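Batch job 17 of 40 flagged for manual review because the log was empty.
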Amino acid sequence: MKTSRPDNADRPDSHNRITVLAVCLFIVVVTLAVFGQTVNHDFVNYDDDKYVYENPHVTGGLTGQAIAWAFTRNHASNWHPLTWMSHMLDCQVYDLRPGGHHLTSVVLHATTAVLLLLVLLRMTGALWPSAFVAVVFAIHPLRVESVAWVAERKDVLSGLFFVLTLGAYARYVKRPSLGRYSMVAVAFALGLMAKPMLVTLPFVLLLLDYWPLKRYDPFAVRRRHPGTGKAKGGFPSISRLVLEKLPLFALAAASCVATVWAQQSAMISSE
């Protein structure tokens, strides 16, 4: 039986680069066709005021004082400093012209969809199924609120770092090293600082270990090789895979603590 890495991990991409590039371009085009119209939209009077146009910490642009506020204060019952800095940068570039803020969200979403294609292709080696998933993600109605509502920048931004974390993890699995693992942790931490919804990502990585990365086989012979912790056939044990992700679980736990602290004012007793 082969190693625990995916079958296509050690060979260059067998797909024509022009074809892959054409699919990436198609994803960008369909995303712009669906969401490009938002650049002509205004802000709305629900949360956009708290997040952007009536928030003096944001409208002043990306300054040292504003960045310190983003990391040390909770506002609108959330702690997501990366999201605040994203809005600050938009204000610095576009001022309070809503079209620019919408454009940033559209560009981030299109970038995420293209990266999703490339990450899935890297992990599975299957171009057209990966393209189908990426296109559905790009234009699915559930993405409308995230992309078309400026106050939902946190969702678009965390989605980008979610996919970047998957890509960094696939790269780490191909050739494990401390440096590559650090990139996984950094991408994950940035995603949590955009929106704490990513706390379940370590569990997603465990699912990817089973498929398509093929690092774990529950049907492998249970006898372990001495000193490696691997089942016969080269597969790590499930406990070893969980231990590998303890730093990521620690980041998720820290994010949970920060979220509970920030959400105190939004929590209402069921009584």
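Reviewer: the log was empty due to a logging misconfiguration, but the result itself is present. The chain is about 60% helix and 0% strand. Unflagging and moving on to job 18.
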